[in-house]
Amino acid sequence: MRFLHISDTHLGYQQYNIKDRERDYFDVFQEAIDKAIEKNVDFIIHTGDFFHSSRPSNESILDGLYLIKKLKDHKIPMFVIPGNHDRGSGTRDRNALEILSEFGLRLLNSDFVEYNGVNIFGLKYISPIHFKRSIILKDILYNLYEKATDKNNFNILMLHLEFAPVFSSSELQTISDIPFEYDYVGIGHYHQRQEPIKEEGRYVVYPGSTEYTQFNEKSYIEKGCYLVEVGGKNIEKIEFVPLNARKFLSYSIDYSEIDKFLEDMEKDLNNLNLNKKPILSLNINTQENISNKDILRILESKNLADEFLHIKIFVNQNKRDISDDTTSSNTESFSAVEKLKEVVDDEELRIKLEEIFKMAESYENVKDLEEFIKHHPEMFEI
Known about the structure:
Blueprint: E1 2-6, H1 19-38, E2 43-46, H2 58-73, E3 78-80, H3 96-101, E4 106-107, E5 110-115, E6 118-123, H4 128-133, H5 137-145, E7 154-159, H6 174-177, E8 184-187, E9 197-199, E10 202-205, E11 224-231, E12 234-242, E13 248-254, H7 258-272, E14 279-286, H8 292-301, E15 310-317, H9 329-343, H10 347-361, H11 366-375
């Protein structure tokens, strides 16, 4: 028996408002589907964030339907759990995954299904704040496991949660909060692929996202999915299957070295043999009075600007004056909000974080802020 593990496809994400980026997310998802068909897998598991939004465009829903039909034609079911991006905003909403489930997608919210002698368990995304208040994950997962009628089957668990150490602020631990009755634990939500981890006989696998979504992702780590072969209760092989994601190139340099850097970058572009124009992030450190437009004009003069689909330039002017020592707290807060625009590409997430910063700024003491947080936990559900 073999299956493909994919995650965080974010279908419909029109990053930087560029239509080509929206197609990138579809193309790489379709490539994963084609790999599953080529490898003749028995089924696919998808560990959340199928769509980028709980209310995707009609075009994105049609793209999802096309992929599900393609799998259905080859008799390959796909089992999916809702990630944080897939969730509807209320009980009256029907999210897009529920629509696709009417056409063959196998949606597991907090459910169990037995398929061809394999137990597949799924738990939808739960905000970290709920675990801190009253929910004990281990109890939920034990109760979920008890739904299985044949415990001797190979047991797959699908999660879209924040675990330490990949999420440094999380209190959840895979080794202590996930029962060892599960033979394969597939986890979404973390976009940086990890090598499969073996814990006392079972495997914990983070496939990462299928496309780059942030400049802070390590571009030298390939995007892809995992092909898993199982014999009885044992995993016989886990193979990484690379996908053709568009490359993100990120550099940080001193302005005084820009000419040499651009010469080297031109050589790099020629050596990489890319079949898609990459996305460039250029962080310039300088004490001179230059702007983003100045740097862009330099790139254009070297005929390099057209080599990239999108360019983000950050100019850090390392000047210091007397006013730096008397910066007000409001200015510091404003700088933090401005910094979000540089490091957080996801517009929905950035807007939410800006709301939190501005709300915190409005309180004059920590006690009042703590009281607000106590009565408005939903404010921090990201």
